[in-house]
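Extended Data, record Rhodanese-related sulfurtransferase
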Amino acid sequence: MSASRALGWAAFVLGTAAAFAGSPHRGGAVPRARVDRFEDATADLPAVSATQLAEWIRSREPGLRVIDLRSADAFEAYRIPGARRHDAESLDRLASSDRDVLVLVSADGRIPAQAGRHLRNSGAREILVLRKGVRGWLEEVINPVLGAGTTPRARQRIEARAELSRYFGGQPRIGTPGSPSAGRAMPATDDVDTDIAHLRRRGCG
């Protein structure tokens, strides 16, 4: 076998092994079915849903660190519980360990490429992006519209989601989005700051 073919075979074996290695978080405890690839081409990082993040925060997941990359004003207006704000300069000085899982938060889920580059060598066990950012948190955790559920198991899952929302001060509604039964406790807009303003007037900020 030639040297080039041997190197190619080795690369294939290593790539295949990596694909089945699973998450390093808690020895693979982060369920891959609930973690999607981040769609923004500027930062090739996995994404986590707001519901999953809320579950981790409520259960005080060891090593979880929520890093908010928004402006100081936006962070003061509304923050995810336990989040800490960092800008580009402080990211350079962020110290992590192999026990840490970093979740990066923006307004809409788009993370600057340089943020990912700053953190790749931080030593963290895993670096994730909050899917849809603060908007996703508001939609999934604080102001969710949940299906009615047609089976006992479905109703149990829905009630668990509703209980999670209420834990964080949310107001879950049962029904389909836009239906009269669902209601609109917080009007949906295309602007996260406007949604936060509605939320603060509702008393959840």
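Summary. The beta strands are 35-37, 46-48, 64-68, 84-85, 101-105, 126-130, 145-146, 173-174.
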